[in-house]
Amino acid sequence: MMEGDFFLFDLGGVDLILGVAWLATLGEIKANWQTLSMSFIHQVQNMIIQGDPKVSKAMISSKALKKLDKAKVDIMSML
């Protein structure tokens, strides 16, 4: 079992977003961005997290991006 502090957001069908603060607790990870998977060792056990390709890609035009407010743009630039 893994424990941590979490923030609740209405994600529109997405189960979970992994935040940098939580990811930093994992230490060294191995990520494969093509298969949307990442693995790491937790309590001497190899753990694998598998992403869902149906929710991982969203196209946005530059015109639509300009309509977002500054706070949202600042958050997106940190990803």
Verbal overview:
The protein is an alpha+beta fold. It has helices spanning 20-24, 62-67, 70-77, and strands at 29-32, 37-42, 45-50. A 3-stranded antiparallel sheet has the order 1-2-3, with no helix packed on it. A hairpin with a 2-residue loop joins strand 2 (37-42) and strand 3. The chain starts with 19 loop residues before the first helix and ends with a helix. The mean pLDDT is 77.
- Helix/strand order: HEEEHH
* Form type: extended
Helical residue percent band: 10-25%
Our Rg estimate from Cα atoms comes to 15 Å
Provide the residue-averaged pLDDT.
Answer: 77
The largest sheet, given as strand count, sense and whether it forms a barrel, is:
3 strands, antiparallel
Strand arrangement within the widest β-sheet reads 1-2-3
**Helix/strand/pairing category:** alpha+beta
Q: List the uncertain runs.
A: none
Offer a quick outline of the entry.
By secondary structure, the chain is α+β, with helices and mostly antiparallel strands.
List keywords for this structure.
79 residues; 24% helix; 3-stranded antiparallel β-sheet; alpha+beta; 3 helices; 20% strand; extended
